[in-house]
Design brief:
This protein is mostly helical. The chain has helices at about 1-30, 35-40, 45-50, 55-70, 85-90, 95-105, 115-140, 150-170, 175-185. The radius of gyration is 18 Å and the shape is elongated. The relative contact order is 0.10.
């Protein structure tokens, strides 16, 4: 039983990686379950055994991406502000994943999109965790007078906004350097 569960978990991980590749190549709307199934050597019915809907697979892809970003810790708890910079540098080395995330984020703002709930929940968590990171760095007020809760959405906006600008014009936007500049503006040590 445990061996079967482990094989099933490995197969699910393989499907999620393949789905990420297909979505990166074709976008969410252009990605089909048949294409993902073919990539992992399954029938579409075989794929549906692991993920009953395209939406369930999409959420698994997004959750996996977050696991990569957090080192498998399931959250950013314990992070420091100076550890955000290496995340930006890491993202600059994987444009396909950043492009997939950004495209799905953009699509998710439409009513009824299958990733809308995921992103809504994710941003609530990210803002709370970043507020904690900022509080650990600055206390109850940042040098400019904002509270950590007021600054957290701004840090999030900079992180995601830099990704969009970099994806559109990577020669003009040095994402890691721009983020380092932002940290200086915040007054980070």
């Amino acid at each position: 039983m445990a061996a079967a569960r482990a094989r099933s978990g490995e197969r699910r991980a393989e499907i999620v990686r393949a789905a990420l590749e297909v979505i990166a190549e074709r976008g969410y709307r252009g990605a089909s379950l048949a294409a993902v199934a073919e990539r992992v050597g399954l029938t579409q019915q075989g794929l549906l055994h692991h993920f009953p809907t395209k939406e369930a697979l999409l959420v698994a892809v997004l959750e996996e991406r977050d696991q990569w970003d957090t080192g498998g810790g399931g959250g950013r708890h314990g992070w420091r502000l100076d550890l955000l910079e290496p995340l930006v540098e890491y993202n600059a080395m994987r444009p396909g994943i950043v492009q997939t995330f950004s495209a799905l984020l953009g699509e998710s703002v439409t009513e009824g999109h299958p990733a809308r709930e995921f992103f809504t929940r994710r941003y609530t968590q990210v803002r709370a965790e970043l507020a904690g990171v900022l509080r650990a760095e600055f206390g109850d007020r940042l040098p400019g007078g904002l509270t950590p809760e007021e600054a957290a959405p701004l840090v999030t906006a900079v992180l995601d906004g830099l990704q969009y600008q970099w994806l559109l014009d990577p020669d003009a936007v040095d994402m890691p350097a721009a983020f380092r500049g932002f940290l200086r503006l915040l007054g980070a040590r």
